[in-house]
Amino acid sequence: MDLISIIIPVLNEAAALPACLQALQPPRRQACELIVVDGGSTDNTVAIAGPLADRVLATPTGRAVQMNAGAQAACGGILWFLHGDSLPPPAAAASIRAALAGSNQHWGRFDVRLSGNRPLLRIVETLMNHRSCLTGVATGDQGIFVRRSVFAQVGGYPAIPLMEDIALSHALKRISRPVCLHQRLLTSSRRWEQRGIWKTILLMWRLRLAYFLGTDPARLARLYYGG
User: What's the domain range around 181?
Assistant: First the structure.
């Protein structure tokens, strides 16, 4: 049975992280290791992660940097990148192993369900899942998983401050299309609800278009994070 290394980049996730880590305790007993990579939290994130993870690493802030550090420290032949405000579907580890059982299957992602109850969020998540299957491009919210050898082959996540998941997807697509698992990973809708659903949709469209047109990801990060 392939060991799965679950890599969670975090920054000030003390509120959401306990539920995520508790949900991942059963997979830890089924040939999974759990690596939390902290990017400089100033809350209780590290203290919370310590008893519930196999390893807690400290790196500079930045999801790409954090996830690459987790991958470098991992022992598993399969890497699963998960956000700290997400909850995995039941039997997720078994689904990942089955998805990568074929010789031509190298990476994949889950469908996503946003945590809020507003009807518009059901439309947003449905469009996200369909778009991802159609284009073969996954986002970090969807819990990207990949064979470690293939992740190394494409050079890991590019060291950019935004769109690292999109860039990785394009690199991996040159090797194979993703396996689209339809089990739903529950992810936080806080960014949608805090900023406004329509405003967030328009912002993400604008950022993605600008990225494809060659805009510097550092500039896109300033727009996304409000810097």
Answer: 4-191
The kind and range of the H/E element at 19 are: helix 17-23
Query: What region does 101 belong to: left with phi over 0, alpha with psi -120 to 50, or beta?
Result: alpha
Q: Please say if the pLDDT value at position 227 is more than 60.
A: no
- What is the phi/psi pair of residue 109, to 5°? -160, 170
| pLDDT tens by residue, 17-54 | 999 999 999 999 889 999 999 999 999 999 999 999 99
Between CA 63 and CA 61 the distance in angstroms is 7
Distance, CA of 151 to chain centre: 14
Strand ordering across the sheet containing 4-10 = 55-58, 32-38, 4-10, 78-81, 145-147, 107-114, 179-187, 86-87
Report the mean per-residue pLDDT for the chain.
Answer: 93
d(CA 65, CA 88): 23
Domains in the chain, number: 1
CATH number at residue 87: 3.90.550.10
